[in-house]
Amino acid sequence: MAQVRSREKPATPAASGAGREVAAEQAGGGAALNLIRRAPALSAIVVMALVGLGASIYLTVVHYDTKVSLVCTSGGLINCGNVTTSAYSFVPFTTIPVTIPGMLWFVVSGALALVGLRSIWQGRPEPARLRLAQVIWSLAGLLFVIYLIYCEIVLVHNICEWCTGVHILTFATFILAFYRLQRDGEEAAPLAMQAAPQTPTARPARQLARSRHARRIASGSRSGR
After folding, report:
1. What pLDDT score was predicted for residue 188?
2. What pLDDT does residue 185 have?
3. Distance separating alpha carbons of residues 167 and 177, to the nearest angstrom
4. For 194, which of 145, 159, 172, 219 is 20 to 30 Å away at the CA?
5. Of the listed ranges 45-54, 123-132, 215-224, the one predicted with least confidence
6. What confidence tens digit (pLDDT) does each residue in 1-51 have?
7. Angle between helices 161-182 and 99-121 (to 10 degrees)
8. For residue 198, is it within any domain?
9. Count of Cβ atoms closer than 10 Å to residue 207 Cβ
10. CA 112 to chain centre
11. 193 vs 123, 130, 134, 177, 183, CA distance in Å?
12. Residue 199 confidence class, pLDDT cut points 50, 70, 90
């Protein structure tokens, strides 16, 4: 019977290039997930900064553009309209809405966290005073949030859902920044150090004794000959 031999076609450059791209994407995705696992607090701060920035941008647009409606409850204690249009929705002694410094705060908060993530990604230690800077910056935001909450409850007698969400993000950022400061020096090594091959450890004493005993037997047999 005639045997039919199948011949595999050599991979074309395009196919091999696509394979390398897929492998690179998979490797990059794995490294990104590993980075998130290695620095969950920094990753969470970046995510919260993005969410808070989005909310601040939306409230700023609503403030300046009357055609954009504010999606929020408008009856009872929760009334975003009363809060966002009150005299306390501006930076004291200015006509700047508080949402603009809010945007700036979230941008800086996310940037500080990205500095730490970049250091871990590149296998370098974090900047010496990064964690302290995060705590100071988040504390400044938290103090301003406390002032805004006082204005809402005591002066305006209404609560804004969007504002409350931003307040929660600010408080959570402070908690994570303070937690990282307390654990300074206790976190795991950077990714490059983790990926570095480990040096072989010393062999157990029993294994060394066996090898010595085998060498003695071999030398004795040679001398007996």
Report:
1. 43
2. 63
3. 15
4. 172
5. 215-224
6. 444 444 444 545 544 554 454 444 445 567 788 988 999 999 999 999 999
7. 30
8. no
9. 10
10. 10
11. 6, 20, 25, 24, 19
12. very low
For residues 131 and 138, is the Cβ–Cβ distance under 8 A? no
The amino acid present at 27, given as its one-letter code, is: A
Return the exposure string of 60-72: e unless at least 16 CB atoms fall within 10 Å of the residue's CB, then b. bebbeeeeeebeb
What is the span of the domain harbouring residue 125?
38-185
The verdict on residue 157 lying in a domain is yes
Distance CA 56, CA 69 (A): 15
Whole-angstrom distance, CA of residue 102 vs CA of residue 98: 6
Give the residue among 81, 28, 88, 39 at the shortest CA–CA distance from 59: 81
Say which residues have a Cβ less than 8 Å from residue 63's Cβ, sequence separation at least 6.
Answer: 84, 89, 97, 99
Strands (E), the chain: 74-75, 78-79
HSE-up (13 A, CA, CB side) for residue 153:
7
